[in-house]
Write a structure and sequence with these properties.
Number of helices: 3
Number of domains: 1
Largest sheet: 2 strands, antiparallel
Number of strands: 2
Radius of gyration: 65 Å
Helix content: over 70%
Shape: rod-shaped
């Protein structure tokens, strides 16, 4: 017959529905026994096939659900591992930032100290240079004063001509 079980049951239902009712028998009818038995035999023969197909579909569905659960669990584990890596990486970055800030602070403190020491050294060097120049200037002034006094006493005074001798020249 080649019909599936649902079609065979539908045919049987239509056969009973279309059957002639019996007089004085409200719910009784007359149907052709051979046709009903053929339909029932066909249903019986196809039912194991239908049941096997249903079992196979249920098993396939169960396998699909199990695979989906395994895949979901695998994805969850991967996501958790990735989240842990990101947290670890974030911790590393945070620790690196803290360490970098410490290094920068230490470098700034060292730079400020070096700047202060360099300024003190430069100020001291300029002060010593100023003192040396002042001392040298004092020595130059003293030397100049001595030079003037020595040169003034060493130059002979020119003799003034006598008043008589001036007249001698006038003739």
């Amino acid at each position: 017959m080649g019909n599936d079980v649902q079609e065979l049951i539908d045919m049987l239902y239509n056969m009973v529905t279309d059957a002639w009712g019996l007089p004085l028998g409200a719910e009784k009818c007359v149907i052709e026994r051979d046709k009903v038995l053929d339909l029932l035999d066909e249903i019986k023969s196809q039912l194991p096939t239908e049941l096997e197909e249903a079992k196979r579909l249920i098993a396939s569905r169960a396998e699909y659900v199990n695979n989906a659960k395994r895949e979901a669990e695998s994805m969850r584990k991967v996501a958790e591992q990735r989240a842990r890596q990101l947290v670890d990486q974030e911790e590393i970055v945070r620790a690196a930032k803290i360490r970098a800030n410490e290094i920068v602070s230490a470098a700034e403190a060292k730079s400020n100290e070096l700047r202060r020491v360099a300024n003190e050294y430069a100020d001291d060097a300029l002060r010593r240079t100023e003192d040396a120049i002042a001392e040298a200037l004092g020595e130059v002034r003293q030397s100049r004063t001595r030079f003037r006094s020595v040169s003034a006493s060493a130059v002979p005074q020119r003799e003034q001509p006598s008043p008589a001798s001036e007249t001698d020249i006038e003739l």
